[in-house]
Amino acid sequence: MKRLLIIDDDPSVVLLLTESLRDEGYDVTGETSAPRALELLQARSFDLVISDIEMPELRGLELLRSITRTRPEQMVLLITAFGSIDLAMESVRAGAIDFLAKPFRIEALVLAVERALRERMLRREVVRLREAATREAPHGLAARSPAMQQALDLATRAARSQLPVLITGESGVGKGALARFIHDSSGHAGGRFVQLNCAALPTGLAEAELFGVRRGAFTDAREDRPGVFEQAHKGTLFLDEIGELPAELQPKLLQALESNTVRPLGAANDVAAEARIIAATNRPLEDALRDRRFRADLYHRLNVVRLEVPPLRSRFEDIDLIVDQVLQRVAARSGRTLLGVSADGMRWLRSQRWPCNVRELINTLERAAALTDHDVLSLADLAHEPVRTSDSVLDAALRSDLTLDELERAYIRQVLEKTGGHKGNAARVLGLDRRTLYKKVAELKERE
Questions:
Q1: HSE value, Cβ hemisphere, 13 Å, CA-based, for 396
Q2: What domains does the chain contain, in order, with CATH numbers?
Q3: Residue 431 and residue 414: Cα distance in Å, rounded?
Q4: pTM
């Protein structure tokens, strides 16, 4: 039996509506005090609240806001006097499901209640379907759009083989998540998933990172340390940003791929390194081939099965699902109830270009959830821009005697702050390749 709560300061109206709706088979509670009604809503759950829009204690939208603040999912049907239609319409925009203008026939009330309860059922079904879709989306890979569904389908088929996979796509689209999905869906799932960012290999230690080092190979080699190939033996090795791999290591990588063995620095013999290889790049390797920055034989060895992850701007159908996934994850971590995003907030999310793709969307949602006390994220929460606390680097330079070297360091710091520390995005803003930026950042740390 559906439970209804009637709120009106006129006892005769409460009595009439209560008896009429009980005759229709509803479990009805009547209340003439807005504060007591709010206490009831804290203690019990109701399928529908029917409330006069004008109450002595809480006038206009105050009662509606009080209800939705404590129970954002609560369905509210408003009753209004003839002269306050504009206010009623504003209330609907603020979250009320519908309104009835006095005087009205009981039959009209019954129909309005039925409509509201049907709407409630539909909303709950939408939530259920979204939760089911979220659970089924592997590794947070939202796949409502045809392009992403195609990528996941090909990834599923690729997982059944042992062939190398090359994943392409812009930064932040989810290449790492797709690589993890392939690993978990493959015969290598029992082994380790080892990830290496080729753009972040430390100068002078890159070969040791890849192939390992034995004790005594050089001054600081005080113990045996396996490289990523050995760590991923019988598992999956994910080589991210493969296009940034130093040229001197490319032939050694090719040899390791062809022989399934590596020779650690300081070792006399090769060791087995049978790992499934998945590589990823955020820029076309064909350009690096033309510029002779990447070996053609290594390219063809990696580019056996090719998967392209589309940018978020080309698959807006996935945004709703990504939002659901992120908010459920945030709620689980924080113990909060995050029900979703307001209608205007969702329109704003769908209207953005998201140059940094899924990663940027996730950061936006997590920041908004962390900084708001609301359970439903509003447009104001999402579109918030941090307050600027410092002048631009150029303004500061013009007022001081910064050298060109100092100006460059200051500008790199500012761009890194603006991109949230994301070096790939910062490199694009600065017009540098990743390796150059990593070197400059390392120099910054040495000077500090």
A1: 15
A2: 3-133 (3.40.50.2300), 146-310 (3.40.50.300), 314-382 (1.10.8.60), 393-447 (1.10.10.60)
A3: 14
A4: 0.59
